[in-house]
């Protein structure tokens, strides 16, 4: 990180903006200024001419004064006739003025279409000519690189001029490097990514350009999977912030550059831009690679980097991270640095809060502190209550006008509630975590079942391995515990079935026989009850119950309202029932 107080010199190779784009912007501004100037001059001219005109529809007066008789010379008849034949009809001055003002033809005319077509054709021809000129000036090898001159590596400790990278060893002297890179546009990886942009990923518009970076990884030589296999080599370039893959195709290029070392600073002259798209499904970013598909010497080894290192933090599966890092500034990659910061923050009480760090909030969303009008009084001075806090304007408006947030958790839920065709994207965000949670629950359930089985078998096995004396002692202790009433007062078995297991496994043969007989007798009774079925069930009260209810009603009525009469006997009741109909007797008896 650069110190903002430090005065740094401008690096011409670190400027991401394009000089050609700046020049084009300046030219466009000049054209706009010239167009505005011409427009203002035309407006001034029109204002000056309008002062002299009486009729705005005409540029000159039709009748400036009384007409003057013009003298005509004697003209031969034949000449006069020919003159009349060659006369051209005068056009309307209003139409002429409108045409001069506009300076453009209507868009629905053939002439307008032809002008646009010719203009576009000229622009296309200009682009083609520019591309041809650029390709004619292109070279495929660095200057003086084709010679057999070799340089001895020297130990240095300096910043390389073109790549802005510290070197510990230089392969080519600085003076020779300047000659080789003369008239070549230097593009560092940051500037190369700014030039080659999606969606077209077009090549930088320079006749000769070179990409500079550090080799951070290199693979083995392989063959393509096409019908005619071709040998290729892949390595990765980086500048500690960006990384870019480079492919070398062809047997000659692979054999020439197979000995490239990891950590060397190189320059690649005029490589091909090779766009690519990941084959996997899901979220991905379309990007590009560089490709060398010829046998020319287009890679220049400048020196060896001093600060290149690799992240040595091990991941969860036990492998090393190996992300290229700048050892002079950091000891691990950004991802593991962030993880370390989070771990340290979680250990500090003042930073271990319920709210995580986030983006700064707007000023209007924060509450405001105001001083009260009355000022400081004795009571307020004592309690320090001379200030008041008011809610933010944004929160008030949100509560008053955005009613959806009162009843729904977010806007997507509100849309899904009111619109049947809307599919809430929040439902698909955590599907993987939900599936994983369900699978984990099933695994834990299966593990609990296996453990419970193992524990139960172990308990029975333990009792079987014990001696008869130990089993009797366990049985006696269990019976005394049950007789004390502690288990009954608890209301549940705190041993999770171990007491029942002990009682069941410690019975003698006689006790087991008596228990089996008792259980067999109980089973027979239960089976009789289950198989017993009545053919006809009467749920009405019996005749004796009806007689008792009748006598009770009669006795209560005589005690309260009438004289005492002799109670009706059973024979009299039968006689009464015989004389009356079945329906009437049933209705009288049913009244209680």
Commentary on this structure:
It is a single chain. The chain has 592 residues and is α+β, with helices and mostly antiparallel strands. It has 20 helices and 15 strands. The protein has helices at residues 19-52, 77-85, 93-102, 110-136, 174-180, 189-195, 251-257, 334-347, 378-383, 393-401, 404-407, 411-418, 431-465, 468-484, 486-490, 498-505, 509-531, 543-560, 570-579, 582-590; strands spanning 154-159, 166-170, 185-188, 209-218, 222-223, 231-238, 243-249, 264-269, 272-276, 287-292, 299-305, 308-310, 324-326, 368-371, 387-390. The strands form 3 sheets. Strands 1, 2, 3, 4, 5, 6, 7, 8, 9, 10 and 11 form an 11-stranded mixed sheet that branches. The protein starts with 18 loop residues before the first helix and ends with a helix.
Residue fraction in strands: 5-15%
Predict the CATH topology of one domain.
OB fold (Dihydrolipoamide Acetyltransferase, E2P)
Mean pLDDT: 75
State the end-to-end distance: 103 Å
Structural class: alpha+beta
CATH superfamily annotation of one domain: Nucleic acid-binding proteins
Largest sheet: 11 strands, mixed
- Looking at the overall shape, the CATH architecture of one domain is Beta Barrel
Shape: elongated
CATH class of one domain: Mainly Beta
């Amino acid at each position: 990180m650069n110190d903002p107080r430090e005065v740094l010199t401008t690096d011409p190779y670190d400027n991401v903006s394009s000089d050609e784009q700046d020049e084009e912007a300046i030219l466009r501004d000049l054209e706009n200024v010239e167009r505005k100037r011409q427009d203002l001059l035309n407006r001034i001219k029109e204002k000056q001419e309008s002062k002299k005109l009486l009729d705005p529809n005409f540029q000159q007066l039709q009748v400036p004064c009384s007409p003057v008789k013009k003298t005509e010379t004697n003209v031969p008849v034949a000449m006069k006739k020919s003159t009349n034949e060659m006369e051209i009809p005068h056009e309307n001055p209003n139409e002429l003025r409108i045409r001069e003002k506009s300076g453009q033809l209507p868009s629905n005319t053939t002439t307008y279409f032809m002008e646009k077509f010719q203009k576009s054709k000229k622009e296309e021809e200009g682009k083609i000519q520019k591309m041809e000129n650029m390709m004619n000036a292109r070279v495929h090898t660095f200057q003086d690189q084709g010679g057999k001159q070799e340089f001895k590596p020297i130990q240095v400790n300096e910043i390389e001029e073109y790549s802005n990278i510290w070197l510990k060893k230089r392969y080519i002297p600085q003076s020779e490097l300047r000659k080789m890179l003369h008239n070549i546009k230097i593009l560092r990886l940051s500037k190369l990514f700014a030039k080659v942009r999606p969606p077209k990923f077009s090549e930088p518009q320079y006749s000769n350009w070179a990409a500079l970076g550090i080799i951070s990884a290199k693979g083995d030589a392989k063959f393509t999977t096409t019908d005619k296999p071709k040998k290729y080599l892949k390595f990765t370039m980086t500048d500690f912030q960006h990384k870019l893959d480079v492919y070398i195709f062809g047997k000659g290029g692979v054999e020439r550059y197979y000995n490239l070392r990891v950590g060397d600073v190189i320059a690649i002259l005029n490589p091909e831009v090779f766009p690519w798209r990941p084959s996997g499904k899901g979220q991905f970013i379309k990007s590009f690679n560089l490709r060398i598909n010829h046998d020319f010497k287009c890679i220049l080894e400048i020196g060896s980097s001093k600060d290149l290192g690799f992240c040595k933090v091990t991941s969860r599966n036990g492998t090393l991270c190996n992300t290229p890092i700048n050892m002079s500034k950091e000891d691990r990659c950004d991802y593991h640095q962030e993880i370390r910061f989070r771990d340290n923050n979680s250990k500090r009480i003042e930073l271990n809060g319920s709210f995580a760090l986030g983006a700064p909030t707007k000023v209007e969303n924060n509450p405001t502190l105001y001083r009260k009008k009355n000022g400081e009084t004795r009571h307020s001075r004592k309690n320090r209550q001379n200030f008041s806090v008011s809610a933010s304007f944004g929160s008030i408006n949100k509560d008053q006008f955005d009613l959806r947030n009162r009843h729904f958790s977010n806007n997507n839920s509100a849309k899904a509630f009111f619109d049947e065709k809307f599919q809430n994207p929040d439902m698909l965000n955590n599907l993987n975590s939900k599936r994983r949670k369900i699978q984990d629950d099933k695994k834990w359930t299966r593990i609990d079942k296996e453990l419970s089985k193992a524990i139960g078998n172990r308990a029975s096995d333990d009792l079987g391995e014990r001696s008869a004396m130990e089993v009797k002692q366990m049985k006696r202790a269990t019976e005394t515990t049950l007789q004390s009433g502690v288990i009954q007062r608890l209301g549940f078995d705190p041993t999770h079935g171990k007491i029942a297991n002990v009682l069941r496994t410690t019975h003698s043969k006689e006790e087991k026989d008596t228990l089996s007989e008792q259980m067999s007798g109980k089973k027979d009774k239960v089976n009789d009850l289950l198989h017993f079925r009545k053919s006809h069930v009467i749920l009405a009260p019996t005749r004796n119950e009806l007689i008792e209810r009748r006598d009770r009603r009669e006795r209560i009525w005589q005690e309260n309202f009438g004289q005492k009469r002799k109670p009706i006997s059973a024979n009299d009741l039968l006689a009464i029932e015989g004389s009356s109909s079945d329906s009437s007797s049933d209705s009288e008896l049913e009244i209680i």
